[in-house]
Automatic annotation (TrEMBL):
InterPro entries: TfoX-like (IPR047525), TfoX_C (IPR007077). It holds the Pfam family TfoX_C. It comes from the Bacteria. This is TfoX C-terminal domain protein. Residues 6-87 form the TfoX C-terminal domain. Gene3D superfamilies: 5' to 3' exonuclease, C-terminal subdomain (1.10.150.20).
Length: 89
C-alpha cells in the first residue's frame, strides 16, 4: 500500500502530462487534490469545463480511479468500472 498521498499528478499511474494539465485547469494539482475531488467529481468538473468535448471514460474516469489505487485503468475491474460509470450519469 502506498502511504505518500501528496505526490505530483504525473507521478501517479495513468496520469500523463495532458491529463495533468487538464486537472490543473480545474484546480487539481496533486494526489491529495484528486482524492478530495474523487474520480467522479474530477470527471464532472472536466465535463463542465469542456462541455463540447467527449471525455472517454477510460481515459479520464477510470484513469483517475486507477491513479488513486495504483492500478492501470484497465485493471480496476468491471464491477468498479460500472459503478463509476453509473455515478457520472
Amino acid at each position: 500500500m502506498i502511504t505518500t498521498r501528496n505526490r505530483n499528478l504525473t507521478d501517479l499511474k495513468n496520469i500523463g502530462k495532458k491529463i495533468a494539465c487538464r486537472l490543473n485547469e480545474i484546480g487539481i494539482f496533486s494526489e491529495d487534490d484528486l482524492r478530495r475531488a474523487s474520480p467522479v467529481g474530477a470527471h464532472r468538473m472536466l465535463k463542465e469545463r469542456y462541455p463540447d468535448e467527449i471525455l472517454p471514460v477510460c481515459y479520464y474516469l477510470y484513469s483517475f480511479e486507477g491513479a488513486l489505487t495504483d492500478e492501470h485503468w484497465d485493471k480496476i475491474g468491471e464491477k468498479k468500472k460500472q459503478k463509476l460509470k453509473a455515478q457520472i450519469g
